[in-house]
């Protein structure tokens, strides 16, 4: 009888020990089984908010003269409409560039500019042409070869973004222009300020300048 009770007690102790061992093993695996497989840990779930675009280097138009561009999107001279037109056509629709548009027509360069793959135009405003004495301006407009030379000196191959403006740029006339400045303030050849920059057209980008650029003789 004593031997039977002893065996029963030993069996109970063994069962209790096995129960503790299984509980310990189960507790050690809790973290592993509750963490879904294949899921990264410590990764934020919020999506960063995009920063608003800034003028100049970020790609927007900049400069005080931009305020005079028509705001009605249906106006041919508005930013929206100019973006849909080739560069010479867009310039002709801009009220600040009527003299330049007439010069482009007189120099028979409209088709050349409109058919170009990509160009950057440093476009003198009407006020820029007004700085030239009328007799001298009439003389230039009457001399087609001289007019073409001057106009070509305002055109650079390819689209130049604001953050790539500073530096020397070879013009279609063959000589370089030099742009200095940064941000939203730039000067061309130390004589002409960019008064409205980064105007997009279908095949080019336009920078309005407040003086006519004259190629070195």
TrEMBL record:
One of its GO terms (biological process) is cell adhesion. It holds the Pfam family Fasciclin. Residues 84-213 form the FAS1 domain. Keywords: Lipoprotein, Signal. One of its GO terms (molecular function) is cell adhesion molecule binding. Residues 1-26 form the signal peptide. SUPFAM superfamilies: FAS1 domain. PROSITE patterns: FAS1, PROKAR_LIPOPROTEIN. InterPro entries: Adhesion/Biosynth-related, FAS1_dom_sf, FAS1_domain. One of its GO terms (cellular component) is extracellular space. PANTHER family: FI19380P1 (PTHR10900:SF77), PERIOSTIN-RELATED (PTHR10900). This is Lipoprotein. The lineage of its organism: Bacteria, Bacillati, Actinomycetota, Actinomycetes, Micromonosporales.
